[in-house]
Amino acid sequence: MVLMKEFRVILPISVEEYQVGQLYSVAEASKNETGGGEGVEVLVNEPYEKDGEKGQYTHKIYHLQSKVPTFVRMLAPDGALNMHEKAWNAYPYCRTSVLEK
Predict the structure, then answer these.
(1) Global confidence as pTM
(2) What is the rounded (10 degree) CA torsion for 14, 16, 17, 22?
(3) What per-residue confidence (pLDDT) applies to 87?
(4) Do residues 59 and 96 make contact, with C-beta atoms less than 8 angstroms apart?
């Protein structure tokens, strides 16, 4: 079963200005959470075009070891706290899959 929700928010800015702001805020949040081998590791960040849809494809690994309590780190097997995210962002549409490898 696939559940889709659509939200529409009225903003006092244009769609293009919103897109720039969204990209900036995501980049800043990723930068602030990354350091010392933790946070977000970007493996692929490239443009894509499929079926007339143009956008940006990214493959990221989220290293979550420092974000969980110590007892969880002790119990979790190696690699269990790494999540792989693959995203196809064709603004305003974004398709994302998150996997644990």
Answers:
(1) 0.70
(2) 120
(3) 93
(4) no
